[in-house]
Amino acid sequence: MNLLDMVEKNVFLSKLFKIGITTPVKIAKLDLAKDGRSEINVHITQEPSIEVKKWGVWGQDYNTINLVLSGSVILNLEVKNWEKLVYCDLMVKKEDGLFCLSQEFENSYIKLSCDGFFFKEVRIHWDAEA
């Protein structure tokens, strides 16, 4: 399953990544609120399928797309050595009506279950790790 499958209102993202997100990503930020709302930032180093003029040129002006998703209720969360997590495969599957995301690298991981996200915004930047 692809990350975009769990994002509502993803018309722009479907144009930006016509074949889905196929490269390793990094969960860069996770905000949790007491009322159950959340926001997640995922850094993507995949060249977009379309040119967005205001962003400039891929590989010259930016090499990372920061996808900001919001609105989901996080039901389960496990994190180990968050600071050591790098760009790696993000596994997405659906179980019992929930989306389960997991990302693991060596001795670090993040695993969470949620009901899905809404597309909030896209930011771009240059990432030396990418």
Task: Reconstruct the topology from this structure.
Blueprint (H helix, E strand, L loop, with lengths): L6 E2 L2 H6 L8 E8 L5 E7 L19 E7 L3 E7 L10 E5 L2 E8 L2 E7 L2 E9 L5
Parallel strand pairs: 1-9
Antiparallel strand pairs: 2-3, 3-4, 4-9, 5-8, 6-7, 7-8
What does this structure look like?
The chain is mainly beta and 130 residues long. Helix content is 5%, strand content 46%. The chain has one helix spanning 11-16; strands spanning 7-8, 25-32, 38-44, 64-70, 74-80, 91-95, 98-105, 108-114, 117-125. The mean pLDDT is 92.
- Helical region count? 1
Estimated structural class: mainly beta
Largest sheet composition:
5 strands, mixed
Radius of gyration: 14 Å
Q: Would you list the SSEs in sequence order as H and E?
A: EHEEEEEEEE
Strand order of the largest sheet: 1-9-4-3-2
Low-confidence parts, pLDDT < 50 over ≥5 residues?
Answer: none
Distance between the termini: 23 Å
Mean pLDDT, as a whole number?
Answer: 92
Fraction of residues in helix = under 10%
Percentage of residues in strands = over 45%
Shape: globular
Number of strands: 9
Task: Summarize this entry quickly.
By secondary structure, the chain is mainly beta. It is about 5% helix and about 45% strand.
Structural features:
130 residues; mainly beta; 1 helix; 4-stranded antiparallel beta sheet; 46% strand; 9 strands; 5-stranded mixed beta sheet
